[in-house]
Amino acid sequence: MIKLRAVSNKDCRLIWKWANDPDVRAESFSSETIPFNDHVKWFESKIGNPDCFLYIAEEPSQVPIGQVRFELEGHDATISISLDRKFRHKGFGSMLIALASQNIFAVSKASVIHAYIKAGNFASASAFKKAGFIFQENRVIKGQRATHLILTKKAH
After folding, report:
1. How far apart are CA 66 and CA 86, in angstroms?
2. What distance in Å separates the CA atoms of residue 133 and residue 102, rounded to the nearest whole number?
3. Which of 9, 13, 15, 23 is 20 to 30 Å apart from 47, CA to CA?
4. What is the pTM of this model?
């Protein structure tokens, strides 16, 4: 079973490492490598933002397996997730999405969670659907095709 903990400053480099994984960059809407100094500025802006909820998922032995972030705007939350490459394709993605979604509904005013998945990222789409997200529409984000899925609080 996995658990969530709030991100702390000591997680900055780990999240940067995960963000720059070639597979993560390939599935991102901005695929360029992220310079560490840029990441530090971004990280500091997120960790100090009351509308950003950033968590590390860990195994029972406290080994970090991935991160999940929610950006809130009113009652809407947008989710972003990435897993350490050692933990991909083992069912952790859907577990993390479901656990983090329950958590954000409990600790925030969010009533809808939005997920935007780059076209062709079938593993992520499958993980979100397994966690209860439903298809809304196809969209274009940053010039790229994407699938928009949602999870509503009342349905969870």
Report:
1. 10
2. 12
3. 23
4. 0.92
